[in-house]
Amino acid sequence: MLDLSMSLSAQQNDDSTMGASSSTIVTPEHDPDTTAAIENINIESNDDSVYADLFKNPTAEITTTTENVNLTYNSTNSVDLNIDVFSNDPAELMLLAPFSYEKRKLILNNGPCQPQKIDMPNKRFPVHNSRSFQCSWYMKTMPDGSATRREWISYSCSKDKIFCIYCILIGNEKSTVWTSTGFSSWNKASERIVMHETSSNHIEACLKIKLEDTCLPLLPSMLKARNEFVATNRKIVEAIIEIILYLARHSLAFRGHRESWSENLRGNFRDLVCLLGKYHPILASYIVGHQEKNKNKYDFISWRRQNQMIESLASYTRVVVLKQIKTAKFFSLTMDSTFDNSRKEQLSFVIRYLNEDSGEINERLINLKECSNTSSEQLFNIFEKICNDNSLNWSDYLVGQSYDGASNMRGSYNGLQAIIRRSNTAAIFVWCYAHRLNLVLTDAVSSSVNAVDMFGIIETIHDFINSSKKRVALFELHQEKCYGNKQRKRRFKRVQTTRWWSHDLALNTVLDTFDALCNTLEELQKSECTSDRKGAYQAKSLKENLICDKFLLTAFIYKQLFEIVTPLSKMLQTIDIDLIGVIAVVDDKIRELKNARSDENFLKLQEKVYQFKMCTSVNNEDFKPLPLNRLKRVPKKSAEETQDEVITDPLQHFKIQTFFVAYDTAIIQIKERFSEITKGIYKDLSLFSRRHLEEISKNNDLLPKDAFDVFSDVYSKFILKDDLKREYLQFSKSYFNFEQVKLLPLQLHSSEIEIDDALSGSLTDGASESEIEDSFENSQNRQVKEVSKLQKNGCSLSIVLKVLLISGLSSTFPMLTTALKIAVTLPVASTTPERTFSKLNIVKNKLRSTMAEGRLESLMILSCESDIKIETDQIINDFARKSVLLEKAL
Question: For the TTF-type domain, which residue ranges apply (predicted)?
Fold first, then answer.
């Protein structure tokens, strides 16, 4: 799989001389990233196995040198040989087993140990029972009287035994006499030597040794050609991987309807391959060869190879995320499901964790599974299987879970959160705050008759204008006449959508294009009076409903209400917000709503409406005033001494029945739906805020006696209450000193645009790109001050944790560090699954609705987690393991 480059030089002396010899095998790097060498060659009867083993295992550079009696061998399994110590005594050489090719070459080049009598102590071989070894056994006498040296016999001076060096190196001999124990029955030596050298195992070992010595000198040229072949293939696959990454990260389609080379358009993938081939000579050569042969042996651009590369890329991305999760140890879960374009239920599985390297909170998509049955039991089975497949220890380290308000998710007894908590009580459930706030807005916009009428008119305008291309064109024409280049052309938005701020978006579109809308309705009333009397009447009716004080007053009431609440909705959809941030911004919004619910503010709204009417092209006299209320006489009941005062002033009646009701509903609903943030574990978490740290640093007695009781009970496996309180008090005294030294920024986000960009994936109703751009351009102009105010560091736990980590105090305050890591890991909302569903609508659109589940999951991971850096070499290695053919090519 890796490039292999080897230069082989071997010098072998004549067998008869048994003199000094040298052999060197060097494997230099083929490129900066790849090196390989020859190791562990086992030569079987099939000649091809020699070359197969050469390419099997990559190693570092290997150099072996033999000079007379000094020998050094270095490899991945570093072994140092010194012939001065071991010599070529076969009994000592057996310590080097197993024998790789390099070891065998060294031993054979050094030759067998065949000493003469003159070389022995006392000038003779040891004698036992009047018997001793004879030097004549080194030679074999042939029938014609000639003599041949037995190269395989090796005498051990240390054991006074003889061995078969060939059988030792190859290891085929079943008997251990000639390979490990040694032969020393000198009275039977002549007979046994002949028996051994004529045995089949010995002959096979000799043949393998000679075959290896004959074939391997040819390998350098073969290896050079193979290295070039592998390097070329890896360059081709590298270019193809870059194309796949580009298409996947941009959520673009890969395949075309027809992909043959004779077609002009072959789909994005093949067309990009051809385009890149114009600037990539190696890829261009491959494309030409592929077109000529029509089917290449190594086809890297087929649909099957395409799927395998996508799978390898997604697997690598998932592995990177899982490594970060395991480093962080603590994680929380968010899950949600939706229908895709093929009407299949897709379950998004998202993990929230603290990235130890960057100190940031990450929410990553791990899996996307089809789930036709969304019962809580089935969802738990899927959750458990995903955790097991990804080696996530959820029973110990899952610290939180967040879902929407569906009963199968948040049910107190049989919901998914309840089932998980039976096995892990520390996995506290957080009902998605963004979904809760959406319910608050839903109640607020339905709180009065005037509110229902106003949003009903806006929805009717959307349906009336967008039902005809002629009306749409006319509306755009009047926008150009009224505003020119001062603002971009706008389109009407629906009110009843699944987007959390659709009411805000639709209302501001009407107010921002009020003049153009009135002119459009007036022209439609005149032009369609003969051809479409129903359309003309609708245009007249809509214009009359728009040009009235009731509509404008109601619109400006909710415009102001949305300016307060919509930034909170956007904040709850960000990834890096934590529970302390939620508490801070919710309290702040409740105060703003209470301040806005006043007679003074209502007077200001009246002034704004008046200024708006003066700036429009419609005559002020044409605006219909608030209607007078009909006096109702209420019968006086028995024993009643007083009678209710009837409100006759239209403005006073409007203020009570619409203005106060809208704000009262919003305030009451927020308090009810966010009431738990002032209870239980939330109180303990609030102690980690900068405000409480500052208070307690001045007076330790302000720390409540029951501080962290609930938190330590829930996470008793990781937190000791007494240690946490002690470290908390010590840390509070020094926190602000470290914060000043580190010169932290005043805001977590550098600009409001970054926050809006982070929310760009939160639209879930298939909104067009122009609608999304309109919404963000509109919201940026209205909410700059609000967003910057909500993003101050004092409203977040993450800033406290960052100071702790950056200052290197995690080892000094280990219990406090663990508590803060758990706190920032706790989920706030389940909005990331909603963002993945926005990607799902793009990846699996109507033209790609037949996509297989495995390919869909891989493309979703690559599209959603596009910021993860990909190591191309590792992807190629994993891709090569997909088949034996690819392994040979790469």
Answer: 129-221
Element (H, E) at 259: none
Q: In terms of DSSP H, where are the helices of 345-448? A: 376-389, 394-397, 407-410, 416-423, 433-444
User: Per-residue confidence at 881, pLDDT binned at 50, 70, 90?
Assistant: very high
E-only strand ranges, 404-478: 428-431
Task: Using CA atoms of 206, 212, 215, 220 in order, give the dihedral in degrees to the nearest 10.
Answer: -170
230-239, 289-298, 385-394, 686-695: lowest mean pLDDT where? 289-298
User: Cβ distance 674 to 715 under 8 Å?
Assistant: no
- How far apart, in whole angstroms, are the C-alpha atoms of residue 672 and residue 661? 16
Name the residue with tokens 């390297």: 357
The position carrying tokens 């209400």 is 561
Closest CA to 776 of 793, 762, 765: 762
Q: Contact, 573 vs 434, CB < 8 A?
A: yes
Domains parsed from the chain with CATH numbers: 7-219 (no CATH), 309-432+830-889 (3.30.420), 438-627+648-676 (no CATH), 679-748+791-829 (no CATH)
Measured from the Cβ of residue 624, the count of other Cβ atoms closer than 10 Å reads 13
Nearest to 500 by CA among 834, 233, 883: 834
What's the predicted TM-score (pTM) here? 0.72
Categorize the per-residue pLDDT at 773 as very low, low, confident or very high, splitting at 50, 70 and 90: very low
Selection from 533, 506, 547, 522 nearest residue 471 by Cα: 522
Give the SS3 label for residue 624: strand
In angstroms and rounded to an integer, the radius of gyration of the C-alpha atoms of the chain is 41
pLDDT in tens, 334-351: 999 999 999 999 999 999
Of 141, 153, 148, nearest to 197 by C-alpha is 153
Assign 332 to helix, strand or coil.
strand
Residue type, 736: F
SS (H, E, C) 439-458: HHHHHHCCCCHHHHHHHHHH
Check: CB of residue 714 under 8 Å from CB of residue 608: no
Residue 17 tokens read as 């001389």
Whether the CB-CB separation of 454 and 554 falls below 8 Å is answered with: yes
Residue in this structure with the two tokens 């091809």, named with its chain if needed = 48
Structure-block tokens of residue 697 = 């640093």
Half-sphere exposure of 205 (CA within 13 A, CB side): 23
Residue with tokens 């003066």: 614
CA 383 – CA 422 distance, rounded (Å): 14
Give the residue from 311, 231, 269 showing the smallest Cα distance to 878. 311
> CA–CA separation, 73 vs 75, rounded Å?
7
Q: How far apart are CA 744 and CA 741, in angstroms?
A: 8
What residues pair up with 23 in beta bridges, in sequence order?
Answer: 10
Which helix (DSSP H) or strand (DSSP E) does residue 368 occupy?
strand 361-370
Which of 292, 252, 217 is closest to 38 using CA atoms? 217
CB neighbours (10 Å) of residue 127?
12
CB–CB of 8/884 below 8 Å?
Answer: no
Encoded tokens for 475:
């509306």
User: Residue length, the chain?
Assistant: 890
Comparing CA positions, the residue from 869, 879, 890, 758 lying closest to residue 323 is: 869
Cis peptide before 58 (omega within 30 of 0): no
DSSP-assigned letters across all residues of 752-763: HHHHHHHTTT--
Ramachandran angles phi, psi of 22, nearest 5°: -145, 145
**Is residue 549 within 8 Å of residue 625, measured between CB atoms?**
yes
| 254 CB-near residues (< 8 Å, 6+ apart) | 244, 247, 267, 268, 269, 306
Buried b / exposed e across 209-230, counting CB within 10 Å, b at 16+? beebeeebeebeeebeebbeeb
Q: From the centroid of its chain, how far is CA 586?
A: 31
Number of H helices, E strands in the chain: 39, 13
Regarding predicted confidence, which is higher, 613 or 755?
A: 613
What Å distances lie between residue 247 and 240, 268, 387, CA to CA?
A: 11, 8, 29
